Amino acid sequence: MRLKFFLYIFFSFVLIHSQNVESRELSIKQLEERKKLDLERKKRIEKRGKKTFQKEITITTEIVFLSKEREVPAVLSNLDPILDDEGFYGVKLAIEDNLTTGRFLGHDYKVQFYRVLLEENLEAEFEKLLKDGKKYFVVDLNEDELLSLMKIPGIDDVLVFNTRAKNDSLRNENCKENFFHIPPSYSILSDALTQYLVKKKWKKWFLVTGPKKNDQMYSTALKNSAKKFNVKIKEEKIWDFSADLRRTAGKEVPIFTKGSKYDVLIVADEAGEFGEYLAYRTWDPRPIAGTQGLKPNSWHRTHEQWGATQMQNRFRRESGRWMTEVDYHSWTAVRAIGESVTRTNSNDVNEVQKYLLSEKFGLGAYKGVKVSFRSWNGQLRQPVLLAAPRSMVSVSPQDGYIHPVSELDTLGKDQPESSCKF
Asked: Where are the alpha helices (DSSP H) in 229-271?
């Protein structure tokens, strides 16, 4: 009896200890050790022979990841590197995941990476890919660039997956049936944040908007959310200072925020030009949310639930850096293609598109529930993570918000509100 009791305690300790290890984020040293183990395992597998398909290859799906070179912006912070490989590793991992099932079914997946240089014409380069017969495009482009693709002859015969642009217009008046949007729109992000602030009873806002176009679009979405959830915007200001805030924030911010009584300072500063300097410098001691402070995200480095820790560590072993939202969106897009090809046993564009927009489609994406596409505008419905820089705070939709189809549709524009007409 004592022996059984000892063994029970021993195995319980081992189980708890192993779960704690797996649930914790790995250090760089541990990641390097894991990488060495992965290489050793890879060598052993290569000695035994490469992974082979269990069935004869009957379907080969070619996916293009298309990005555009950007002018390097002025350095806003020495802490955050400027990445030029966003999306690459997300696609790479997703291809591996697709092949895990594909090898048993005879479904192969190949990816080609294209970057349009500054001096090259996006439309001309895209037309070349269409002439080469490419059908599936995962693209890292902004709103104007996506709109230019919509005008290219032959675009209706392919599927395009947007991994960056959050503009609501792409999901409404400028929507297109074969364009799928992985990032949450501005209205989804603002609704997700507002639901939480209402839950906390922080219903009096001071809204600060940056001078750029994306700041203003996010600000518009925030104002629409405030109206939707009966929130009072006590004061609204445009940030138009040009001084170096690293030296003047202590003087400028208190004066700028002095005035109305409010519960929370809401910031719309997509580029991060001033938002980080508002914290701890406001006239009244208030929390900050929006693009800084408490921020709504599709993915965040502190996200650990529902298997996300394993995904985070796997990505870091491969890339040597944190997984960004664009990386996550790219992984999701490629996995969505793979899931559809698996379920339909076809890579015909029309069949895949029909399945993606159907009620049958659902994809496990480390969010606790399966994600799917809204049939009326191609937007991916998904939970939104609310996170501070170094901690997860909550996940929206919040408890209590109900919907006849999916609680996820309480975020953003629902079908009756949508102006998208396929």
From this structure: 245-257
